[in-house]
Automatic annotation (TrEMBL):
Keywords: ATP-binding, Kinase, Nucleotide biosynthesis, Nucleotide-binding, Transferase. It catalyses: dTMP + ATP = dTDP + ADP. Its EC number is 2.7.4.9. PROSITE patterns: THYMIDYLATE_KINASE. The lineage of its organism: Bacteria, Bacillati, Actinomycetota, Actinomycetes, Pseudonocardiales. It holds the Pfam family Thymidylate_kin. The gene is tmk. It comes from Saccharomonospora azurea NA-128. Phosphorylation of dTMP to form dTDP in both de novo and salvage pathways of dTTP synthesis. This is Thymidylate kinase. GO terms for molecular function: ATP binding; dTMP kinase activity.
Length: 223
């Protein structure tokens, strides 16, 4: 059975870059690796409803914290059989966002913390009721909210298909979300967390790759 690793962080934190770098380093160690990202836009109807709501469709759906959280959770519930199959076939399964994203963003929207009602509800819904696999490790890519926002804006300018949505455009929400992520990591919510500094240039070749190599060994050889 493989190891399930979730990579978490703000929009624009660089999760895709880290996922790619970790995949490369893990494969260099001889590990069999596969990846997935949530929400699964273009693959799952619940994810597509999320995207449409965040871009102004479906009336006041985006205003409902629990309604949006349920859509995110249903996307993962439908993906669960594929995750289990991937764990049976690969040494490491890397997920760009997972259950903790739902907990962090919905808590931030409600001005709650790690001990709030919505974080407990997300765990009960996704882990206890839907039976999603619990991650073996979770990585928090920590960046200042203003840095993440700048990256998200640049990404949107460079790629029309990645226009900023209502959550990405809300600076105050992103700041609160960063605090909740820190609380989740400190509490080792669901499983053990590792915190990575993502404030530098993630595309640089030297230091980030060295950090990824060390992390890959911890995730794979140290299991």
């Amino acid at each position: 059975m493989g190891r399930l690793v979730a990579i978490e962080g703000l929009d624009g934190a660089g999760k895709r870059t880290v996922t790619n770098a970790l995949t490369e380093e893990l494969r260099a160690l001889g590990a069999s690796v596969t990846t997935a990202a949530f929400p699964r836009y273009g693959e799952d109807v619940h994810a597509d409803l999320v995207r449409e709501a965040l871009h102004g469709e479906h009336g006041d759906l985006a205003d409902s914290v629990y309604g949006m959280a349920l859509l995110y959770a249903l996307d993962r519930r439908d993906a669960a059989p594929g995750i289990r199959a991937a764990l049976a076939e690969h040494d490491v399964v890397l997920l760009d966002r997972y259950v903790a994203s739902n907990a962090a963003y919905q808590a931030a929207r409600l001005h709650q913390g790690v001990d709030g009602d919505v974080v407990r509800w997300v765990r009960e819904l996704e882990i206890d009721r839907f039976g999603l696999p619990v991650p073996d490790r979770q990585l928090l890519l920590r960046v200042p909210a203003d840095v993440a926002a700048s990256r998200a804006a640049n990404r949107a300018r460079e790629d029309a298909s990645r226009a900023m949505d209502a959550f990405e455009s809300d600076d105050a929400l992103q700041t609160r979300c960063a605090r909740v992520y820190d609380e989740l990591a400190a509490a080792h919510w669901l499983s053990e967390w590792h915190v990575l500094d993502g404030s530098g240039d993630l595309r640089a070749k030297a230091a980030p790759n060295e950090a990824m190599a060390v992390l890959a060994k911890a995730l794979y050889l140290g299991k």
